[in-house]
Design a protein that fits this description.
The protein is of the alpha/beta class. It has nine helices and seven strands. The strands form three sheets. It has a three-stranded parallel sheet, covered by helices on one side. The chain has a two-stranded antiparallel sheet with strand order 4-7. A two-stranded antiparallel ribbon has the order 5-6. A hairpin with a 2-residue loop joins strand 5 and strand 6. It is globular and about 70 Å long. The relative contact order is 0.11.
Length: 285
Amino acid sequence: QNYGAKGILGRMIDELSSTYRVGSYSIAGNVKASEGETPVTTISPKHGMSEFTAKDFLKDQLAVLKSEESYSAFVQAYTSALGTSLETTEEFGKLLEDAEVAGFSDDQFAKGFKRVAQIISKNKETDTQREVFFVEGRKFDTHSDGGVYLEEALGQISDALKAFKAEMLRLNKWQDVVIMEASDFGRTLTPNSKGTDHAWGGINFIVGGGLNGKKILGKYPHSLRDHSVWNVGRGRVLPTTPWEAPWQAIAEWFGVNTPEMMDRVLPNARYFPASQLFTKDTLFR
């Protein structure tokens, strides 16, 4: 494992940055998935762009800091990043204030998708052609949940996606959006006290206006008995489909259109047979 590797969203947007005007946004702080050479704009789901309150008080010192060059590469990089961050914060703060979207509830997941909808609604102002977003919802580490928490959390996801889809349809952008759901790990099929334990394989979903939807892709295990070929015990099911499968199709749809580009975006795809990977034609109309 390469711990210095960039994230899947970062790698995709980096590959297209020389061809398109791109943007990368995280509504969940600093996350691995967004890491890349392209700067990531971090936005709070609750507060939007958090303004640097001492900016006016320190404006003279900041002006000197930005104008002077340093022989130190570290100081120069920090100064450049600080200047860009302050400018981006001010610009995006005004942009989000002016963006009007409706129908979102007040939970964290809905707030995250509300921020995404606001940014997309200002696409003419941001002048971007390809954008990636990372949104995080509630935790699903349901060791002692009798079902109430899980039902509520899944309901919040459903409501947020409904509101987001409605806004994208209003903006005539639903055909241009793909949402890929992901989780750190699956859950056991057998209970752990009132809930479930950590596992491996699981079910994930993809939604978007351009998808050839209403399909279940991948391979369902032919047996779920304990210690069968796919079940290693306690209902811990081995994955039958690699993450590279859906991401290859999404990356191709996004504009990653040469084998060389795809190798950089999905360096481990080469270790899987083509029959286990999805193409753009598999997922999209």
